[in-house]
Amino acid sequence: MVPQDDLHDFEGIVRLFPLRGVIHFPHVILPLHIFEPRYRQMTEHALASDLRIGMIQSRPSLELTYPDHPPLVEVGCLGRIIRHERLPDGRFNFLLLGLRRFRIIRELDAPTLYRQAQVELIDEPDPGPEALLLSQSLADEVERIIPNDAEWRTLLRGRVPLNVLTDLIAHAFPFPAEIKQHLLEEPHPARRAARLIELLKPITPSSRPGVAPEPRPPSGFSLN
Question: Are 91 and 162 members of one domain?
């Protein structure tokens, strides 16, 4: 869980890291490998200041039209570097903890190699009295699909808040990127949960790939 005062000094400017197909969610730890010069600079600047980076997607339909500077979707995830490794040749490995959803207000004409934007953080409404029932329904679906997974069983029985549970499941299951983006764009935990239940129902234990409740570094680093 992210401390409530973690963003008390946030001023609304985010370093942007568009990485195709990688949808980051709050509460999730994302391992990344950084090698492009613009993102090395982004990492250097983040490490020297607030440790924050915003993961976001470019619009797939416009990537070929604007290959060097594709337009971006509106909603991304603000994250904080919680561990990093600086390699001798200037590359980086780091772990990025998802903090909050954000919406781009406007992209800035920044002097940096990487892109920056003014954003607003997206508040999540209280899921209301249906939260307990939705949490149980999600737990039932996950346990049906992965009946013998001790890590998931421990997580599901841990009374995790609905907003956190939905983000962990949305990250861990191999849904297409466009579906994950839609789940990221949905601020209401109850509506996210209902959509996830719909997505999980057709999955059978024999058809699902292996999943885990959270990514495990250092294997599986995403390449920029």
Answer: no
Q: Which residue has the tokens 């390699």?
A: 87
User: Which pLDDT score is estimated for 202?
Assistant: 92
- Report residues of the chain scoring pLDDT below 50: 1-2, 4, 210-223
Query: Position 159: which residue type?
Result: R
Element (H, E) at 54: strand 52-56
What is the structure's pLDDT at 61?
59
List the alpha helices (DSSP H) in 131-216: 131-145, 150-156, 162-172, 177-185, 189-200
> Which CATH number belongs to the domain containing residue 34 in this structure?
2.30.130.40
pTM: 0.87
Residue type for position 155 = L
Give the angle 172-177-182 at the CA atoms, nearest 5°.
90
Amino acid identity for residue 180 in this structure: K
- DSSP-assigned letters across all residues of 77-135: EEEEEEEEEE-TTS-EEEEEEEEEEEEEEEE---SSSS-EEEEEEPP----GGGHHHHH
Query: What is the pLDDT, as a whole number, of residue 5?
Result: 53
Cα-flanking dihedrals φ and ψ of residue 79, to 5°? -130, 165
In three-state secondary structure terms, 99 is strand
Name the helix (H) or strand (E) containing 38: helix 37-47
Inside any domain, residue 154: yes
